[in-house]
Amino acid sequence: MRRWFFASESVTEGHPDKVADAISDSVLDAVLAQDPDGRVACETLVTTGQAVVAGELNTTASIEVEKLTREAVADIGYLGDSEFAADSIDVTVLVHNQSPDIAAGVLRAEEARSGSTDRYDELGAGDQGIMFGFAVDETPELMPLPIQLAHRLAERLSVVRREGVIPYLRPDGKTQVMVEYEDRRPRRVASILISAHHAPGVDLQGQLQRDLWDHVVTAAIPAPLLDESARFFVNPSGNFEVGGPHADTGLTGRKIIVDTYGGYARHGGGAFSGKDPTKVDRSAAYAARHAAKNVVAAGLATRCEVQLAYAIGRAEPFSIHLDTFGTSEIAPERLEDLVEEFFDFRPAAIIARLDLQRPIYRPTAAYGHFGRPDFPWESTDDAGELRRVASAL
Questions:
Q1: With 70 as the cut, is the pLDDT of residue 190 above it?
Q2: What SS3 string covers 116-142?
């Protein structure tokens, strides 16, 4: 049997790029709370003492971008007299209206202009591009094990900070997990890396290492996956006393692999945060994950990747492709046809099926957009019907 290793990383909510994502998604949620049809493309830059929020808004909503920015920073935990703190940073707002050419194509798709009366043909894709969705039976969440464990470590790092279990931790941090595989099946966790932002004066290889193992690692990683040969690295570069946007500039959308499958599956290149659901970079990636997950949950394959492609201003996808990597329980071409017939990938249909015109996006800004049951695109409610239809083919 072939033995191999795969590693994925995650970051905490206090990582500079995730601070930027949180601000952008806070703006989006504030718009959708008042105006479900609002159009948002919000980009944020954070650095020492500064937050710059820019982008396009077409909405009837009345929002205070500066207030939303400070609230997001405070919620993450950047408070007090640091060089990047919610009440002292300078906030610059550079927001303007969406291009009328883009708006026209989104609001009335080419199909509708050509005479279609189907309501789902009314909304065109907001841009061209390709999007991927993926699922695999390595975890109950149907996510690749390395990224799922890395996320849970990062999330736990935040929990023990917020609850005071490890009171000297600060908001920034990164995690990385390497899993050993035999052929396609994960067998054990081979290595764990945690870089934890901390207060001055912490004993890195004593107190910090013990606290992280006792309160983070053993709480986040199932015991059967850990053995005495697993390697554990803590802050390998030394002190991590200066963190967050004071240590490194953060930008919206710069953690697209952390946000998706940890490099285990392909990525189309488009970021998610700060974009309303008419932007197929976001909504079609969610729809592709939804379809792939239901295929695996239905038992029709043990791994599944769905690629969607769009042309700006058109409702119908430019192309749909499905790959099960040789694991399909039925003929692959039949399964691809079934997915295309079962799931409507036009933007308006995606938005309606997944109920995406709601303020649900701020929680996605950290710890992954997939593998978390509260998100509508993670539902497997269609798996039973998909399996029934497949069995009748």
A1: yes
A2: CCCHHHCCCCCCCEEEEEEEECCCCCC
Distance between CA 312 and CA 56 in Å, rounded? 17
Whole-angstrom distance, CA of residue 168 vs CA of residue 337: 54
For strands 90-96 and 129-136, give the pairing. Answer: unpaired
Residue type for 350, please? I
State the sign of the Cα–Cα–Cα–Cα dihedral 240, 15, 167, 76: positive
Cα(271)–Cα(391) distance, integer angstroms = 37
Residue among 33, 52, 31 at smallest CA distance from 95:
52
Q: What is the pLDDT of residue 127?
A: 83
Please, which residues have CB within 8 angstroms of residue 166's CB and are 6 or more apart in sequence? Answer: 160, 211, 212, 215, 216
Q: Which residue intervals of the chain are DSSP H helices?
A: 16-34, 65-76, 100-107, 110-113, 145-162, 209-212, 218-220, 256-259, 280-297, 332-342, 347-354, 383-391
DSSP, residue by residue, 334-377: HHHHHHHHHS--SHHHHHHHHT-SSS--GGGGSS-SSS-TTSGG
Q: Three-state SS for 193?
A: strand
Distance between CA 49 and CA 104 in Å, rounded?
38
The pTM for the full model equals: 0.94
Q: What does the pLDDT look like over 118-143, one tens digit per residue?
A: 676 678 888 899 999 999 999 999 99
For residue 222, give the amino acid letter.
P
R_g (Cα) of the chain, nearest Å:
22
Distances from the Cα of 5 to the Cα of 11, 151, 179, 191, 271, angstroms: 21, 18, 6, 10, 27
Closest CA to 7 of 137, 140, 147, 139: 147
Neighbours of 75 (CB within 10 A): 14
